[in-house]
Amino acid sequence: MKSSSALTAALLALGFCASADAQTQPAARPRPVLPERLFVSIGSVYQVGSNDFTDSATIRRNAENGRFETDYSVGTGPAFDISGGVLIWRNLAVGVGVTRFSTSTTTALSASVPHPFFFNRPREVSGEVGGDRTESAVHVQLRAIVPVSNRIQVTVFGGPSFFHVDQSIVTDFDYSESYPYDTAAFSRAVT
Question: 109 lies in a domain?
Answer without folding.
Answer: yes
